[in-house]
Amino acid sequence: MNVGWRNRHRVYGCVLHFDIKNDKIWLQYNGTEIDFAEELIKQGVPKEDVVLGFHSPFMRQFTEYAVG
């Protein structure tokens, strides 16, 4: 989480969001430069267990990962 103040503006936001739903890892948001889907694969997680939740359901079918 980013929490605090930048000048006179409140800063609050999620940097990284994963969910585990129906035995799959859903990558909901990634505000980093790290490809966490690829990192999960390197750690032995099968691609069919990773969902790129930040893509629309329609677009997920064109990725190499699970659709949901």
Quick recap:
This protein has 68 residues and is α+β, with helices and mostly antiparallel strands.
Can you give a write-up of this model?
With 68 residues, the chain is an alpha+beta fold. It has one domain (13-60): 2-Layer Sandwich (TATA-Binding Protein). It is built from 2 helices and 5 strands, in the order ββββαβα. It has helices at residues 36-42, 57-60, and strands spanning 2-6, 9-13, 16-21, 24-30, 50-52. The strands form 2 sheets. Strands 3-4-5 form a 3-stranded mixed sheet, covered by helices on one side. A two-stranded antiparallel sheet has the order 1-2. The protein is elongated. It starts with a strand and ends in an 8-residue tail after the last helix. The model has no long low-confidence stretch (mean pLDDT 96).
CA radius of gyration? 14 Å
Mean pLDDT: 96
Question: Could you tell me how far the N terminus lies from the C terminus, measured between alpha carbons in angstroms?
Answer: 26 Å
* Structural class computed from helices and strand pairing: alpha+beta
Low-pLDDT windows of residues: none
Main β-sheet: number of strands, strand sense, barrel status? 3 strands, mixed
CATH architecture, by name, is 2-Layer Sandwich
Q: CATH homologous superfamily name?
A: XisI-like
Shape: elongated
Tally the helices.
2
Number of domains: 1
Which fold name is given in CATH as the topology? TATA-Binding Protein
How many individual β-strands?
Answer: 5
Sheet with most strands: strand arrangement? 3-4-5
- In helices, the fraction of residues equals 10-25%
